[in-house]
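User: Please predict the structure of the protein below. I'd like the answer in structure-token form so I can feed it into my own downstream comparison script.

Assistant: Understood. Taking the following sequence of 443 residues as input:
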Amino acid sequence: MTDDQLVQAATRAYVYGYPLLYNLDEIGKLPSGRGTLAGGKAIPWNTVWCARELLGPSAEFVSPNNDTLYLLVPLDLSGGPVRIDVPDTCGRYYVLQCVDAWTNNFAYIGSRATGTAAGSFTFVPPGWDGAVADGSTVVRAPSTIAVIVGRLQVDGEADLPAVHALQDRFTVMATGTGTAGIPEPVEGMAEDLIWWERLRVALAAFPPPEGDAPFVAVLGRLGLLDAGSPYVDPDPALAAALAAGAEAGMAMIEQLAGGSAPPEGWSNATHYFDYNLDHFEIGTIDAPEWKIEDRSKAAVTRAVAARAGLWGNHGYEACYAPIFRDADGELLDGAHRYEVTFAPAPPADAFWSLTMYDVPRFYLVDNPIDRYSLGDRSPGLQYGDDGSVTLYLQATSPGPEHEANWLPTPAEGTFRPMLRAYQPGAALIDGTYPMPPIRRTDR
């Protein structure tokens, strides 16, 4: 290939491999005690950890929610099956979202998918052909490394003890022995090639699906399928192309994620997580309307979804709608005051909320009243006689009469609110719900 073709191939490979490595980084942080969702607590492989408090700005994780208590299980199935027992939540909304190494949501357990009664589920690794004799439901994982991201509905601070009691009844038991963990790259290469070596090792451990053969061919031209590392002493032209491709690939992801060129109006993220085309277990919907059939588009969407909302659910489980600009097309900025009126309130069978994030990190925003989201479970939220609800987005109080509906923004700099709806109503899924403009009020 010419130098330009090498750079183009490297750019494509970077976008393709980005979600795999980003996801493995975040999963790998959990056993080592570096995971911010877990507050730095070490979660050994195949054990369950439960958050006891709702997340705040100290959670340096992209677009976390502030509506539920998280439950995390880092899975390593290299030693054999792992069983998970869930309690009867007595109608309370919860979901156990199962994410493989490539960020595919390959299974769901919970209110929508399996109901709220007690149940047992055994996760088995790829190619496993054993038998499960305990009557539990078998869930076939597409990769030996995966993560279960659980969310349990919380209705305010007073509800925490009840949720804690439920959390304590989720149990995990590894029926096999030993764990291989996430493979490490070889040492002895330039800093700007370490990412590529990590990708080479990850591809060997977690092979792409057969349908991605065109991407795999590109990866092979860059040495990413070699049995031994070609990056310790690489050809200078290849090294230069890989460095340029990484820069161009990341710039593309940032632009599409809204980091450098945010779109106007609300983004419809209902189908952001439809890139899973190959692995459908319990709770997933294997239907054309929930698939991005064009694999090139699916690969790019997967990368953007990882950057802007890693571990997000399919739209049939939860709808996400972020926004960057006001009604006049200007970026939302903490220097100004805004209002948004939902008329009627967003339809959701479980619950809805609007959460505040900074830009470009998409972290929760620190504020003097420790309020990071507002929604239908917020104490004292005020509605209009017509069922509408107006929220005030600004850094300082909108006054005592409006404080119940105040969602604080950063004191300075741009921000990005996100509407969430768990078990969304049909109007949110099909796009017929009227998403309102955010209007600046301090002109």
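That's the full token string. The chain is about 25% helix and 20% strand.
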